[in-house]
Specification:
- By secondary structure, this protein is mainly alpha-helical.
- α5 runs antiparallel to α6.
- The longest helix is centred in the C-terminal third of the chain and has 34 residues.
């Protein structure tokens, strides 16, 4: 097995362990559960084939669904953001950023890029999961507020994780 494969498997296991053991039980304001497992999907390399990326996102969301008993809501949302990622990348990135070996992380592309990339995908993810959970448009204002809070807390945690990762990588370089 390649070292890169083991690195991604380890990242998946760590993120899912944190999600299942801590963040699934973190219930902010009575209805907000941060979905930090999305961090795994965000950091998958650009070179990942589209079919494999969709399968990995689906499996990641399905794992979350299995622990929350949510019937495929997270699998659908994770697969959808995996489907949208190439379009988003073409929209917010230049050709240089897709050179071989460049990863979707702060170390390679900087904070400005990572903030917009992760923020957009997390907001879309939160909107889909909340809409599928509620499944109606009555009280749309409340639903939208819940989406914004969910996205904000997930975004804050993903940025904290990426900040810690970038600090660890800088220490390794020095």
């Amino acid at each position: 097995m390649s070292r890169l494969f083991i690195k991604h498997i380890t990242r998946f296991l760590v993120v899912m362990f944190l999600q299942v053991m801590i963040f699934n039980y973190l219930n902010l304001f009575g209805y907000i559960n941060p979905s930090v497992y999305v961090f795994f999907i965000l950091l998958l390399p650009f070179e990942t084939p589209a079919w494999l990326f969709l399968i990995l996102a689906f499996f990641t969301g399905l794992t979350q669904d299995a622990f929350l008993n949510t019937g495929g809501i997270h699998a659908a949302a994770a697969t959808f953001i995996a489907f949208l990622r190439p379009t988003l990348l073409r929209t917010i990135s230049s050709r240089r950023e897709f050179e071989s070996g460049i990863k979707p992380e702060v170390q390679d592309l900087g904070w400005k890029w990572f903030l917009s990339y992760s923020g957009i995908l997390i907001l879309i993810y939160a909107f889909i999961t909340e809409l599928l959970l509620v499944f109606h448009f009555s009280n749309f204002g409340d639903t939208l507020l819940r989406v914004l809070w969910q996205a904000l807390f997930t975004y804050a945690l993903v940025l904290a994780f990426e900040f810690v990762r970038s600090l660890n990588k800088q220490k390794a370089i020095i």
